[in-house]
Specification:
about 220 residues; TIM Barrel; globular; binds pyridoxal-5'-phosphate
Amino acid sequence: MTDTPEAGISKRRDTILAQLAAAASPPPVLVAVSKTQPDAALEDMLATGQRVFGENRVQEAKTHWEDRRARFPDLELHLIGPLQSNKAEDAVRLCDVIQTLDRPKLADALAAAMGKTGRRPRLMVQVNTGEEPQKAGIAPADLPALLEYARKQGLEIEGLMCIPPVGEPAGPHFALLAKLARAHGLASLSMGMSGDYELAARFGATHVRVGTALFGERQ
Ligand SMILES: *Cc1c(COP(=O)(O)O)cnc(C)c1O
């Protein structure tokens, strides 16, 4: 019998959960990155019991999850892509965790949106560990000032997130992020994607963001 797509997704998820459990105790939370996936794949993933999802665009997150929330009240939606200040209110209304706070202006916008909506999504700061000019995230040297600024705006930061440079070993970036989190007393570490989630788990990730290894290739 050939696998149905649902059976394939379920198997891949079981494998990844087992690998994460073998790599770290407690294992990191598996954030299923559902960007660009068709509705059928979202439904198949929900059928496995998966409830934590990541999206990198606010608009697509709305299309994917706004209505499904009603059916799955235990859904936990993470924004993992760059956030424009003018979309902060939409993100605050929709998301449970925003992983990509990376500048003072966005801290202002999030604080304002939280005040207006009464919603307080959990927050992580994205750190540009490779100091790549084109990449989102705060430079490591500027992290203390941003954390301080965010706290002054009444924002509670629970952790750090990074996306290591493509083509470089990820280990040193994971180690740096873990060190920065320890230095600032932050509990959560979002790091590791399809190619390196086990490595990230061994470096102390509390959240891994996995797309292709879970869903198959994006369409
Ligand atoms: C797309 C994306 C992922 C998942 O990438 P895969 O390699 O498909 O696992 C993780 N993190 C971020 C920020 C992403 O944009």
